[in-house]
Description:
Number of strands: 5
Oligomer: single chain
Helix content: 55-70%
Strand order of the largest sheet: 1-2-3-4-5
Largest sheet: 5 strands, mixed
Organism: Caldalkalibacillus thermarum (strain TA2.A1)
Structural class: mainly alpha
Keywords: Membrane, Transmembrane, Transmembrane helix
Protein name: Transmembrane protein
Transmembrane segments: 271-292
Strand content: under 5%
Amino acid sequence: MGKMIGNPQFYRLWEDGRYTEALEQSLEPRKSKRERISDFLFGSRTERTTTLAAAGLSVGDFIYDYLRIDPVVVEGINFARAEEIDSIFAFSHFAKNIDADSVGEISQLQGYVAEKMLAMELTAKGHEVQFPETSNEPGWDLLVDGEKFQVKNLSEPRGVYEHLQKYPDIPVYVNADLADTFAGHRNVYIAESIHHEEIVSKTRETIILGQELQDFEIPLVTALASTATNVKGLMKGESNLKHTVLNIVTDTASRSAGGLLGQYTGATVGLMLFGPAGVIVLGAAGAFLGMAQGGKLAGTLKRMTARAEEQRFKRDLTQLLETGRGEIVPKLKRRQQQWLAMKTKLEEAQAPQEVIEYFQKKHQDDQTYLTHKQTELEALKHQLNRLPFHEAYTEVLTQLSLCGIHPRKYQQQLNLCHASLKALLHKLKMKGLPLA
């Protein structure tokens, strides 16, 4: 069976006991300029994307996120042997009962892959994700920021409706193919990295075409790495995410979002990032004046009788911000619990102290980042009244995403915010504000 980590330098450094250096290696070796040009010209789009993704993600980042989701996977691993690190990504404990000739078993396996990919996507977005202790928990597959979620990767919506009827209080994540079907449903969230036919076909090809079942671990790891890197690329810099949110609000997301989100309209991307409440797409409403006209718009509002509507919107927006800020302390506690669980499993597996300290540093950096974000949200609250409404709206949505606050936590307040924003836009239109 091939190596899970494609960069041979990782294994060499690990065998030498240079654990920190090993963990800082990219998952795939960085290619020469000639090789990159050749891959770009002659490789398939999928090959180019997954290779570049793996090359842009460190082994340490990937393993850290993976262990946060499921720290139990380190049990029984001999950390002194580099090749045993591959066992972290094995799912033979799950796959040993899979019948490769059974359509039902294939469905079960692709569902497992979808859950793993979604867990990695959500973790990369800054959420705390856990799998249940047993695989047959009724009604839910993942615990996300302390709340239960079902995961469905289906070709048609019937199974989703059945879940919603049987478990009306448990929200469900569905594959991106079903985004239009469930747009705006209060208990349905969209997993942008999950596409039904792609996962099913790869699962079937890998198993049915005579390959060893465990060999599927390799394309699974590649898919997880690609998902994590794409999401982290969006979330990494504040300017990247703010640009994406602005594109959604101005209805230009499909032309400039790029990556996982580039193929969707602004409204659909809004659903993917902010849950069923989505985003008010000002460009589609014909009401967005552009950043350059912010001052003009603010002056216009003062001369018009829409001030009451603007004040109501700013109050609701402030409450939305406060709702998100109130979730940071619980997030810090959940992450601390995740780290303690991971640390315990690493110590029980007798992982090298250097490895434990490496992951502890990542945990501490995450906690420091969240603490700083809490302070930034407080400062932003006092600035909202001085910002043009579209800038204030974009900034709040951006900061909620950067904090890793799950949309489930603020859907009610976001809906109230949208109601007052619609009232403001309607009043501006009725007063004859020139539209761009």
